[in-house]
Amino acid sequence: MQAIDTLTPCPCGNSDGYGRCCGLLHEGAVAATAEQLMRSRYSAYVLKRETYLLDTWHHSTRPAHLKLATQQPAPTWLGLTVKRHESEGDRAIVEFVARLRYGGGKAQRMHEISRFVREDGRWFYVDGEFPEKSGD
């Protein structure tokens, strides 16, 4: 797990700083929206916070482990763009593009439309689909 200065801009792109953004959720605060949870999950991938990722993954689709610490080559996360957030009651979708690089390779884009569900006041990631490559 990587350490991060609380004044450093948050990995999710919020300039308020990690300590005022995803850091609060990583320490136990509850995400108010599915988008906020998705951003905190992106930051958790950047910081290799596997426990947080598993804890915020819905039990019906949660893997046993992610093995982030042993991922080779490890990705370098380059940024996040949220394209859309739609919420209706206790269900939501968040469409985003995450940019990353593996080893010394060229930068790649991961475009996902993620589904979220809220149970007992907490949002959980359920699953995602990867739209066909397009000119996005």
Automatic annotation (TrEMBL):
<dbReference type="InterPro" id="IPR048469">
    <property type="entry name" value="YchJ-like_M"/>
</dbReference>
<dbReference type="InterPro" id="IPR032710">
    <property type="entry name" value="NTF2-like_dom_sf"/>
</dbReference>
<dbReference type="InterPro" id="IPR023006">
    <property type="entry name" value="YchJ-like"/>
</dbReference>
<protein>
    <recommendedName>
        <fullName>UPF0225 protein H8F01_07915</fullName>
    </recommendedName>
</protein>
<feature type="domain" description="YchJ-like middle NTF2-like">
    <location>
        <begin position="33"/>
        <end position="128"/>
    </location>
</feature>
<dbReference type="Pfam" id="PF17775">
    <property type="entry name" value="YchJ_M-like"/>
</dbReference>
<comment type="similarity">
    <text>Belongs to the UPF0225 family.</text>
</comment>
